[in-house]
Structure formats: C-alpha cells, structure tokens
Specification:
Elements (H helix, E strand, L loop, with lengths): L1 E5 L2 H11 L6 E5 L4 H15 L5 E10 L14 E9 L3 E3 L4 E3 L2 H4 L3 E3 L3 H12 L4 E8 L7 H11 L1 E5 L2 H10 L4 E10 L10 H19 L1
Parallel strand pairs: 1-2, 1-3, 3-10, 4-8, 8-9
Antiparallel strand pairs: 3-9, 4-7, 4-10, 5-6
Helix pairs in contact: 1-7, 2-6, 4-7
Length: 219
C-alpha cells in the first residue's frame, strides 16, 4: 500500500476527485502545514502501519527559486520532482547566510530521494508528455518572503523550489526504510512577497491531477 500525503485539504481534494475512493492499494492523509505537524501526523501513521506501507507519495505546491540566466527557469504551474530534500533553515540565520547546526545537534540536513518510485514517475510523465523539472527541494520553517533570502538558499543548496513539509517526510521515510516520491507544482516565485502573482488554487488543482495519474501507475 502507498501512503499519499498532502499538507492541506485544499491540495488533497483535487486528487481525491480524480483518484476516487481510497482502496487497499493506497490511503491518503493530510498532515497540516510545516515540518512539526507533518512529522507528528505522518509519524503516527507510519509508526503503526509501516510494515503494510510500501512507499510514500507526497504532493502539493511549492515556490520556485529564481534561477541564473544560464539555467532554464521553472515557471508557475510547472511540475517538479524531488531528487533530494534538504532542511534549509535549521541553524543560525544571519543577514546573508545560515550557519547550519552540525549533525550531532540537528541530525542530517540532506536526504537523497533516488528510488524506483522516482524512476517510475519520470517514465509515467514522459510517456504522457507531461513536462517536469527535477532537482533539490528545500524545506523551510517559514516561507521565504524576499528574493534575497530565496537567492541565499538556492545558492547554498542549488535548490529548485521550496516547501514546508518534504524534509520531515523524507526523515520519516529514512527512519522506516521507505521510498519517497515527492511531487510539487509551482504556485509562486520566491521573490519579494507579492501574493497577486500567486496561482495557489490552480497549482493545487494541477498537483492533484498529476498525483492522481501517478498513483494509478504506482499502485
């Protein structure tokens, strides 16, 4: 069985509308926003059921970093797959840098997500001619509200986009030796905060649509 995770009902509802009722092949869960609620909610489920779970599909929305001119910019409503998750702001935040805690204090900051789930998802998207980007996702405790902070995080980790839950799920999957596929659709650019540029609802709809396609193939 695959555990399907989204942070909010706003993200999960479009998935359920397309994937139908839950079955013995998969079950869905909303965790709440941020790494703490995600770790508590998903951790409770995995602690009692991890032997019945073969993998985790996490999906939702994210904010894309503004990339250098030499790179292909990730646009709003783009589909993104995580090759790695990192804990982006676990440490001491200075004006222009973050001093990260050593592993003995904060644990691992980086989680590789290469797995058969990711490889299969790439095959599915390519077969359906659904364009996607793949790379490093950055988990933050607070959304980056300035282009300057986004640039700092992107430069340090070579990040593609940011979110608030992926690192927590990646750590749980590491604990229980489960493969994690994380997919996000871009709702906004990481810039000086301007919600008029966001496409939140459209990104939730697209994320649910693509996640439904993926769960059909993965399960």
């Amino acid at each position: 069985m695959i555990l399907v995770i989204a942070a909010t009902q706003m993200e999960l509802d479009p998935f359920l509308a397309r994937a139908g009722e839950q079955s013995h092949h998969w079950t869905a869960l909303t965790t709440g926003v941020g790494p703490v609620e995600t770790a508590v909610t998903a951790g409770r489920v995995l602690a009692g059921n991890h032997k019945q779970i073969s993998g985790v599909l996490q999906f939702g929305i994210g904010g894309a970093y503004i990339l250098p001119e030499s790179a292909e910019q990730v646009a709003i409503l783009s589909v993104c797959l995580a090759e790695r998750e990192v804990m982006g702001d676990l440490g001491i935040c200075h004006r222009d840098s973050i001093e990260y805690f050593p592993a003995e204090l904060g644990g691992s900051l980086s989680f590789p997500l290469q797995s058969p789930l990711l490889a299969r998802a790439e095959e599915v998207l390519e077969s359906l001619s659904i364009p996607y980007h793949s790379g490093t996702f950055i988990t933050v405790n607070s959304v980056s509200g300035t282009a300057r902070r986004g640039e700092m995080l992107r430069n340090y980790w070579q990040g593609l986009c940011e979110n608030m839950e992926g690192g927590a799920v990646a750590r749980l999957c590491e604990e229980y030796a489960l493969p994690l596929l994380e997919m996000r659709v871009i709702s906004n650019m990481v810039e000086d905060r301007n919600i008029h540029n966001w496409q939140l609802r459209q990104a939730c709809e697209r994320a649910g649509e693509v996640a439904a396609v993926l769960i059909k193939e993965l399960s």
